[in-house]
Amino acid sequence: MSVSTFHILLIDDDEDDYVVMRDLCGEISPSNYKITWKSSYQEGLEALQRQKFDVCLLDYRLGAKTGIELLQETHKLGLRCPTILLTGV
Hints:
Strand order of the largest sheet: 2-1-3-6
Strand content: 25-35%
């Protein structure tokens, strides 16, 4: 039986958060998760426009803009991806 890869997009301006997420997924099943990390609003938006992901983990604070603004923009563009909004608060 073949196990498919779960594609995760992490949009977070803190590289430490990426490292933690990568390590956690690696502990669960290293070959079943592929994490793509984008460190800015614009990079995240471009990734969502270019590639299909199973889920997006989206930081609330992305420099001058917020994750809510990114969600609003993707909605206007007709982009759909299950998203979990992350915040350190």
